[in-house]
Write a structure and sequence with these properties.
- The model has no long low-confidence stretch (mean pLDDT 94).
- The protein has helices at 11-14, 21-37, 87-100; strands at residues 2-8, 40-45, 53-56, 63-66, 76-83, 106-110.
- By secondary structure, the protein is an alpha+beta fold.
- Strand 3 and strand 4 form a beta hairpin.
- The N and C termini lie close together (8 Å).
- Helix 2 (21-37) runs antiparallel to helix 3 (87-100).
């Protein structure tokens, strides 16, 4: 089973400030654990929403809205895709990230085959 871990952003990252070096080092250590365990398929950090766009459909017609977006708590700072045997195992790996960055929020989604 593959799972996507969506790592939520925060106000500092959304403002374009670099991550705290200690948190980044701890998160990198978790990624290395994942690599060594053979579960990590990919992991990528994302740029702030000011560099992105959103497509919405007000009144049924597509509209492109350039960032930045105001709801920081709904935005993603990074994504990891892992291959594990169960949702419980995906949760355990996500909890390792939470230990690396206390206060972070991570959404976990199973990827359809």
């Amino acid at each position: 089973m593959r799972y996507m871990l969506l790592h939520k952003t925060n106000d500092k990252l959304e403002a374009g400030l670099p991550p705290d070096p200690d948190i980044l080092a701890r998160a990198d250590a978790v990624l290395e654990e994942m690599r060594q365990a053979g579960v990590l398929l990919t992991a990528e950090g994302l740029m702030p929403s000011a560099r992105g766009a959103r497509i919405a459909f007000p009144n049924g017609a597509p509209r492109v809205i350039d960032g930045p977006f105001t709801e920081t708590k709904e935005l993603v700072a990074g994504v990891s895709i892992i291959r594990v045997t169960s949702k419980d195992e995906a949760v355990r790996w996500a909890l390792r990230f939470a230990e690396a960055d206390p206060g972070t929020e991570i959404d976990i989604f199973e990827i359809a085959d």
